[in-house]
Automatic annotation (TrEMBL):
This is Uncharacterized protein. Keywords: Membrane, Transmembrane, Transmembrane helix. The lineage of its organism: Bacteria, Bacillati, Actinomycetota, Actinomycetes, Kitasatosporales. The chain crosses the membrane at residues 24-44. It comes from the Bacteria.
Length: 51
């Protein structure tokens, strides 16, 4: 089995296409973290005192 200098790039690209929901899962996790931050800010801003 011969390997050309760029064959690892072709193999990596084909493996990336077979991963499936990797990008979707990454986007869902980012949206969840941002959403939790916004929800915490929204809930906790009512505790600010204006003395």
């Amino acid at each position: 089995m011969e390997h050309s200098p760029g064959s690892w790039l072709v193999e990596a690209a084909s493996a990336a296409q077979e991963q499936g929901a990797g990008n979707l899962l990454r986007i869902v996790l980012i949206v969840m973290v941002v959403g939790c931050g916004l929800a915490a800010w929204f809930l906790l801003r009512g505790y600010k005192r204006d003395d």
